[in-house]
What does this fold into?
Amino acid sequence: GAVVSQHPSRVICKSGTSVKIECRSLDFQATTMFWYRQFPKQSLMLMATSNEGSKATYEQGVEKDKFLINHASLTLSTLTVTSAHPEDSSFYICSARSTFRGYQETQYFGPGTRLLVL
Amino acid sequence: AQTVTQSQPEMSVQEAETVTLSCTYDTSENNYYLFWYKQPPSRQMILVIRQEAYKQQNATENRFSVNFQKAAKSFSLKISDSQLGDTAMYFCAFMKLGGNQFYFGTGTSLTVIP
It folds into this structure.
């Protein structure tokens, strides 16, 4: 149980284009999902908290107009990197907060998406 | 604000031996959760073990156990009978009761040597 998928796993795009990353909880409903960014050999940096049916909460310094988050259903959240630039190249990871009894505080992570902007 | 510190950037251990990864945290909260996650070269974050602060008994999951010292705000991870598949980055994380956000440490890179 508690499987989270992410698609695509890897994407290469040209500068100025937009890229959408999907995060799905496969066997549980997730009212809350999270989006992280991870630079090589560093820890995870929280970008935003996504709540189903409401606007995402962004961390300080994260541009909400650049990183659009939509959490339209209990199993799907999307992150769209708009007008991507080379500095947006990174590893993006989503997680979903568990709804399993006794594990509601636990986050389960997707496999990540490697974005390369040329 | 909560902070999580992992003071060992890199560690290594011989296969079949035991290794302990340290984690300390700073918080004024009394009720919270602590986690250890493993990130192997595939970069998939995997939950290793979790601990509720109100439980005095240390959590155990097969070869993985923790030494939770609430007063000292310490949460170390012991890996027994280390296996090659344990080679990974290990992150300690904190979340307060009723909260949403995880606070991660900077990670410890563990290498199991055959």
